Amino acid sequence: MNHDTRKDWDTYFMDIAYMVSTRSRCNRRHVGAVLVQGKKLLGTAYNGAPSGVPDCSEAGCMIAEEYELVTVDAEEKMIKKQRCVRTIHAEQNLLLFTDRIDREGSSVYVTDQPCWTCANMLANSGITEIVFHRPYLKDAEKVTAMMDQKGISFRRLDAYQPPQEAVGKVED
């Protein structure tokens, strides 16, 4: 990169989210999130076990299986979803460690598209925009529909390239 060229704001804040994700000790997925109001960074968070509690790298993943009824091509079918319940998601930690007043009208940059639970929480948090990079196909359709209903800008940075030192684990 030419040192005279500045990164655009989306790249700048997504780079920070990816760098924050390097703090995660999750064996399955490293996720980072940042809260931005205007061009001001107000908070950062990553996924992991609660403070002072052994994390997945120390105690192993705590996998829960869930089943969801979905309609595919006008046919209902049951799909199995696995998730680790030991960790708090990056978006949830971001909401826990930022103030409501700071979230009003703000944007959240997150390395991964929010799951259904995180999307619900973000939808009620006061933010007006979610920007993500990696898709999360398990919940993508219903999350996108809810964001449309709420009037929250929900966009993926397709062409974005994360900083090499921050490329972490991903599991679909």
UniProtKB/TrEMBL annotation:
Positions of the catalytic residues: 91 (proton donor)
Gene3D superfamilies from the UniProt entry: Cytidine Deaminase, domain 2
Keyword set includes S-adenosyl-L-methionine: no
Ligand binding (Zn(2+)): 89, 115, 118
An example molecular function term from Gene Ontology annotations: dCMP deaminase activity
Keyword Zinc included in the entry's annotation: yes
Recorded superkingdom: Bacteria
Family matches, as SUPFAM superfamilies: Cytidine deaminase-like
Example GO biological process: pyrimidine nucleotide metabolic process
Cofactor(s) recorded in Swiss-Prot or TrEMBL: Zn(2+)
Domain annotation CMP/dCMP-type deaminase: ranges: 8-155
GO cellular component, as recorded: cytoplasm
Keywords noted in UniProt: Hydrolase, Metal-binding, Zinc
Protein family (similarity comment): Belongs to the cytidine and deoxycytidylate deaminase family.
Listed PANTHER family: DEOXYCYTIDYLATE DEAMINASE, DEOXYCYTIDYLATE DEAMINASE-RELATED
Protein name: dCMP deaminase family protein
Species for this entry: Paenibacillus anaericanus
